[in-house]
Write a structure and sequence with these properties.
single chain, alpha/beta, Ribosomal Protein L13p, Chain: A, four-stranded parallel sheet, two-stranded antiparallel ribbon, 5 helices, 6 strands, globular, Ribosomal_uL13_CS, ribosomal protein, mRNA binding, structural constituent of ribosome, Ribosomal_uL13
Length: 147
């Protein structure tokens, strides 16, 4: 009798990938990164287990915002005080905190529960070309053929 393989947390082999965000549209970058963080690129994908890999995104400040998203796309957050609704445009977000822009975009594509939080912790975003995870020997992932 054949049964469906269900991954167990101790059996997961995690890899490290480096993704260059230079001139890649934000949404397309985010979908590829979120898919890798979830583990959907592996044959051992199990929805209730974190089977994903670690992803390092470099050159976050050079990500592309297509169309007029830089002026028209607005990110909101609330300070929890009365009248504390704050808003920023995507262009302002990219200029001031490019790493947080990509983190927000990717984490919005992950499950909104404790498992999604664990997946989000495996995302490392850097504004420049240098990163601090050389010891993990990450593989360079060319996402132009994945988008």
């Amino acid at each position: 009798m054949r049964t469906t393989y269900m991954a167990k947390p101790g059996e997961i082999d995690r890899k490290w990938y480096v993704v260059d965000a230079t001139d890649v549209p934000l949404g397309r970058l985010s979908t590829v990164v979120a898919s890798i963080l979830r583990g959907k690129n592996k044959p051992t994908f199990t929805p209730n287990v974190d089977t994903g890999d670690n992803v390092i995104v470099i050159n976050a400040s050079k990500v592309a915002l297509t169309g007029k998203k830089a002026e028209r796309k607005i990110y909101y957050h609330h300070t929890a005080y009365a009248g504390g609704l704050k808003e920023r445009t995507a262009g302002d977000f990219l200029a001031k905190e490019p790493t947080k822009l990509i983190e927000t975009s990717v984490k919005g594509m992950l499950p909104h529960n404790s498992l999604g939080h664990k997946m989000g912790l495996k995302l490392h975003v850097y504004a420049g070309a240098e990163h601090t995870q050389q010891a993990q020997k990450p593989e360079v992932l060319d996402i132009t053929n994945l988008i």
